[in-house]
Amino acid sequence: MAKYPVDRYYIDYTSLFFKLKKHACPYCGSIVKRHKEKRMASALEARQYKLTNQDGSPISHSVQFITACFRCPACGKMISFEEMKTYEKQNK
């Protein structure tokens, strides 16, 4: 079985909101930790995101998406950056 190359696409949130502030879990109230979520996607799904190779041609192999998110050590829930921002805006 041949191994196909895997491209990695990083979606990193570098705002101070994500890096410096402590955040509470919306589900249990514990302090959450930063986490990198990794997910494999097929070439078809990568094309839906309009991802291309370095030469500009459409992707023809699997890609790995690496996104930053929050993970609660107490309840194990994963909370996206956008979900946390929305939750904190509602509960000011």
Notable characteristics:
92 residues, alpha+beta, four-stranded mixed β-sheet, 3 helices, elongated
Major sheet details: 4 strands, mixed
Number of helical runs?
3
The residue-averaged pLDDT reads 79
Roughly how much helix do the residues carry, as a percent range?
Answer: 10-25%
Distance between the amino and carboxyl termini: 54 Å
Q: What would you call the structural class?
A: alpha+beta
Poorly predicted ranges (pLDDT <50, ≥5 residues)? none
Please state roughly what percent of the residues sit in beta strands, choosing from under 5%, 5-15%, 15-25%, 25-35%, 35-45% or over 45%. Answer: 25-35%
Shape verdict: elongated
Nearest-angstrom radius of gyration? 17 Å
**Number of structural units classed as domains:** 1
Care to describe what's here?
Helix content is 22%, strand content 28%. By secondary structure, it is of the alpha+beta class. The chain has one domain (7-90). Strands 1, 2, 3 and 4 form a 4-stranded mixed β-sheet that branches. Strand 3 (63-71) and strand 4 form a beta hairpin. The termini are far apart.
